[in-house]
Amino acid sequence: MTEQRKVILSGNRPTGRLHIGHLFGVLENWAKLQSEYETYFEVADWHALTTKYRDTETMKQDIEDMVIDWLVSGISPEKSVIFVQSHIKQHAELHILFSMLVSLSRLLRNPTLKEYIAEKETLKLKTEKKTLNKIAANITHKIINENEERRGVLEGKIKEFVLSELSENLFSEDTEVPYGDIVNYGFLGYPVLQAADILIYRAHVVPIGKDQLPHLELTREIARRFNSLYGQVFPIPEPLLNEFAKVPGTDGRKMSKSYGNTILIGEDTQSLKKKIMSSYTDPQKIRKNDPGHPDTCPIFQYHLIFNRENTDIIKNECIKGIRGCVQCKKEIFSKMDEFMEPYREKRATFEKKRDLVWDIIKEGDKKARVKAEETMEIVREKMRINY
Fold it and tell me: Which stretch of DSSP H or E encloses residue 25?
């Protein structure tokens, strides 16, 4: 008798075309896991709506482009279930049931929520500062228009007063952090929906990085609480920790669309060349014969990924000042362009047959729906709500 494989659930928000950071950080690992586990890969479009609910016109295109990159990166519809979250309505049903088991205070301790609030409050403070500076200047100008010296002194005092008041009101230890006007209900509750995503397939394992462990912990808490109240249904999912490859962007920062520093999977030759030749290098290496610092140079990091067999020579030449940045860029462009070619060919095929992409998704939806409904039948029975 063949031992049943353990289940893995993972996914991404649909953000359109993916970059090589996704390829080496996530997709290569997913492709390997397909042979070891029963794998479900989710296009998390409901999760995307928590912050993109105003901008939905590109959602369909974004889903297509992301799934194409999954397919060209080795995610196989024969080995894995590829599905769209919103097409499996059972996720929403389980989300509602789970929401009864989680306190508001527990959701407010979510690290992602705290980071989001801090980011919004910082932006709000900057906006308020600009506004109050203008107000202070206008008030002062009206009061003392005839005396430039006195106007400058008074303007400075007004600015100091209003900004200190604003800062104290926003960040006083006695004041509760304001979030009601900047966090929607969907964002607050998304970790519960995430738990439903994982547990509805009774996943045993979730591949994540260390920074995502707090997110998975709520899922584990919900599974334990449900099993304690109603009987054993859900396995307690374990993290599958991976040391994801860190691919820098062309400006040296983390590769991210928000920074505009990405290299896409299957980037076309001309675009790739332009990005590589204009990318950030070692700011201390001004002339070719200046000693370089390859460990802090993103171009050298690309050599470590795409040109490993030559990295010792390249590093030694760079440090000694006998290798210039232009030469380094030309060599890595050649290697990366060669690497990208099969991805370009596969992507071109799918782009001409976008209906095929949706056929793959529809087939995945059917398989996911069967598994999800099977779980919901057990859940309803255990909760005695299958009347």
Answer: none
The lowest-confidence range among 19-23, 60-64, 212-216 is 212-216
Q: At 42, give phi and psi (nearest 5°).
A: -105, 130
Q: Which amino acid is it at 79?
A: K
Q: In this structure, which long-range contacts are made by residues 245-248, counting pairs with CB atoms below 8 Å and at least 24 apart in sequence?
A: 245/24, 245/25, 245/305, 246/25, 247/19, 247/20, 247/21, 247/24, 247/25, 247/301, 247/305, 248/298, 248/301
Higher per-residue confidence, 286 vs 142: 286
pLDDT at 169 over 90: no
Indicate whether 270 and 365 sit together in one domain: no
Whether the pLDDT of residue 307 is over 90: the answer is yes
> Is 233 contained in some domain?
yes
Q: Do 64 and 120 share a structural domain?
A: no
Quickly list DSSP for 314-365.
HHHHHHHT-S-HHHHHHHHHHHHHHHHHHHHHHHHHHHHTHHHHHHHHHHHH
Whole-Å CA distances, 316 to 291, 307, 311: 10, 15, 8
Q: Are residues 200 and 348 in the same domain?
A: no
Give the pLDDT score at 373: 98
CB 99 within 8 A of CB 189: yes
pLDDT higher than 60, residue 176 = no
- Give the tokens for residue 42: 């989710």
Boundary residue ending a domain (171, 196, 211): 171
Question: What's the pLDDT band for 7 if we cut at 50, 70, 90?
Answer: very high
Q: Are residues 343 and 359 in the same domain?
A: no
**Domain shared by 370 and 333, yes or no:** no
Residue with tokens 């390997």: 32
Evaluate whether residue 94 is within a structural domain.
yes
Range of the domain at 166: 109-171
Higher pLDDT, 370 or 139: 370
Examine residue 234 and state whether it is found in any structural domain, yes or no: yes
Residue 178 lies in a domain: no
